[in-house]
Structure formats: C-alpha cells, structure tokens
Amino acid sequence: MTAKGLFSIVLVDLLLPAAIVLNIYLHFYPILYGCAFPRSPSGAAPFRLLSLADPQIEGDTTLRKYDRLIPSTESLAALPLPQRIPAQAHTLGVKARKYGKMLDLWGNDLYLRHIYRTMKRHTFPTHVTVLGDLLGSQWIGDDEFFRRAERFWKIFEGAEGVGGADLARGLATGEWERKLIMMPGNHDVGYAGDISRPRLNRYEKAFGPYNYQLSFHPPENASFVTKPELRIAVLNSLTLDTPIWDQSLQDESYEFLEKLEKGWKEDPAQATLLLTHLPLHKPARICVDGPEITYFASHHGGGIKSQNFVSEDVSDKVKGWVFGRQSKGVIMTGHDHEGCQTVHFWDEEREAWGVRTWEGWNGDTKKVVREVTVRSMMGEYGGNAGLFSAWFDYENNEWVFEYTSCSLGVQHIWWTVQVVNVITAIWAAVLVLWHVVDFLIMIPAKKKTVPEEKKKQ
C-alpha cells in the first residue's frame, strides 16, 4: 500500500466519521438527550424560561499572575551564563502557560456561546435568565470590567438587557426571547461587606437594572373571570444581610421586598417567581454547600466577606414577604455551582419554615415554595442549562411549575470536536494537494510518452 493510500484510508475511515459523529453530538445534543421544556396537558407551556447560572467570565487578572513570574530582559542579561540558561527556560515555560491560558479563555467564550445558541435554537424559550456571577471577579478596575462585559454580550450575541421601557411597561409578555433577565452576583459586585455604589452603578450600566418586578399573564380563558398573574421578581440578595458596607444599598432591597409584600394576594391565580443569586438558607447536608458566612476583619469594616446562603432569619422573612405562608411559588438561584432542588413549606406544628429536598418531598405541592439552584453553565460543571415551564391550570385553579435541565458536557468535549475538525481539515488539504501535485507531474510524463509511441508506429 502506498503512503497516499494510507493517508486516504485514515481520512475516509477514521477522521471523517469521527468528525461527523462529534459534530452531530455538539450541535444536536439537546435533541439527542431529549431536552425540552416540560409541556402542559394542552401543549407547549406559555412561559418557558431558559435558566443559565454563573458563567464567571475571566480576563486580565488571570493572565497577570504569569506576567509577575516573567523576569525582565535586563535582569536575565545580568545573570551569569550557568544561571541564565535555566532562567530563560523557566521564562519560556511561563510564557507558554500564559498563551495557553489566553487560548483557554478564548475557547471558554466560544463554549458558553455555543451552549446559549444551541439551547435557544432547539428548545424555543419565551424568556431567558442568567442568575448572577456574569463575570469572574468583583476586584477588577472599570476598564477590565467593561472589557469582560463586552465579551459577555458577544457570548450572548443577539440578546439585550431589560431596559427602562420594559420596567415602565411592567409586563414580560410579547417578544421577550431576546432579552436577558439578570441580577448581580457576588463576583459582579461583591458581598455585603465590600459591595459599593460604584460597583452597582457600573453593573447597571453594563447589564441593566435589579430589584424590579414584571408580570406575566398566560393566554386568556373566556370561562375564567380572574386574570392569572405570574409575578417575576428580580432581587439583589447580596445586600440583605449585615454587617454591610453601604446601608443605603440594603435599604433599597428591603424597600423592594416591601413592595412585593404589598402586592401579594392570597389568591391561587397569583404566583411569584423569585429570581436572585444567593440561595436561601438550608440546613447542612441538604445541598452540596452548607450554611456558612465569613467576615472581614474589623479594620476592614467587619462586613460579610462571603456566604453560601442568605441567613436563616432573613430567608424566613423573604419567604413570608414574597410568598406568604400558604402560597405557591418558585425561587431560582445560582451561586452553588453544583446545583440543588429543595422545597420550603410552612410547618403548622412548629409555626416555622421547614426545608426538604425536592426528591424527598412527598407532601402537597399546592402550598409550597420550590427552590431551584441552577447548576453552573461553566465547563467544569458540564455546561448546564435549566428548562423551567409555567402554566395556569384553569380546571384546578392553580399555577403549575415544572423544571428539568440539559448539559452539553465538560469543555473538553467542545475542544475535542474543534481539534478533530482542524486535524481533519489539514489532513484533507494535504491529501488534496498531494493528488494535485501527482496530477501535475503526470501531465508532462504523458506528453513525452505520446511522441515515442508515434515513432514506434
């Protein structure tokens, strides 16, 4: 067998089939996994929320650590030769890792964009939310913040944030599939102990408002007098606990909660969907994260430095103000990258709120608040996307909520597909060039053989 024949076999029998199979998986994984929004008995749910959490876009700060490890040209030149050669080798290694990280950041942006575009294309959401931690660090300057924000909008290409006109209208009906409903995460603006007005201002400038309410109404039913309403409340939960750096920021969040409480009705035709970043309190071993709050040192203000959940006391207040004790609703959060599903219910015997895992709950679902902590869409956590459906059951006079999820797989799958595509393309190009060269070589050879054959005749 010739070398060219071997090249052809590798291309046709190995590379092309592998590229086809991998690309089919990458671009059609929602279909292959049967990912779809839960459907109502009458068909597609009128409210379909594509839920994404914690993309955490990294940037210059992750590259800067490599720059600090690279010595200057002058300092290298000043070293004796026996020391200079190992130092130069070390410098080349650091530079290689830096360029590798730059490639990783570029690929991560494309990976996240692929998840968003593919899920939208195959599942047809009516609404989209990104549940905080849009960026990877609150400790960055304005220039870096807005550079990452620009990358964020390239990842979510074609989307736009909720604007002032949307808030003035107050309705989340109509053409909303292009809008992103977002709220700040701790990596965007900080926890209570370091959150500040300038950080929230730049967040709002780049991504839109927080602490607001919208209303969604399902298609009308002529036999139903009351118009069902799904309240969509977007809350900045990072400012709810104390000690806090800026008290005015906490006041804003509590004023918004008061408005939600005043707008609550003891009516099954009204339900609330609370979107926020920090999950509400749960006892240990309910989710991967347990309850934990750490604080800055007193000379740094003594405020909250980090927290896994909103504190227990504040969580109970939020549930009472937003949902009442005998109301149905849903909370969707991010923050815990592993994801978690729980049920909050009012325990009449203890006269206190209780929490159970969703899988372990076997009680009535008509008067509970379901909390879905959406697993992160980062590659390390499988590129997850949540699919939340809501519809109003006119026969039973109640809102129905269902949730499922869909994952692409770790980022190495995306990279594998791209590498196989590049190798296949190069392999095919080399093979085509090989054939072209052989063809061009054969033409002169044929021209020479023709006169010789005529002479023999």
From TrEMBL:
Q: Subcellular localization, per the record? A: Membrane
Instruction: Name the Pfam families on file.
Output: Metallophos
The UniProt keyword set, sorted, is: Membrane, Transmembrane, Transmembrane helix
Which membrane topology term applies here?
Answer: Multi-pass membrane protein
A Gene Ontology biological process in which this protein takes part is: GPI anchor biosynthetic process
Q: Membrane spanning segments where?
A: 7-28, 413-437
What SUPFAM superfamilies is this protein classified in?
A: Metallo-dependent phosphatases (SSF56300)
A GO cellular component annotation here is: endoplasmic reticulum
What does the record give under GO molecular function? hydrolase activity
Database matches in PROSITE patterns: PROKAR_LIPOPROTEIN (PS51257)
- Keyword Transmembrane: yes or no? yes
User: Does Membrane show up as a keyword for this record?
Assistant: yes
Residue span(s) of domain Calcineurin-like phosphoesterase: 115-337
The name this protein carries in UniProt is Calcineurin-like phosphoesterase domain-containing protein
Which organism does this record belong to? Answer: Sphaerosporella brunnea
Q: What is the lineage of its organism?
A: Eukaryota, Fungi, Dikarya, Ascomycota, Pezizomycotina
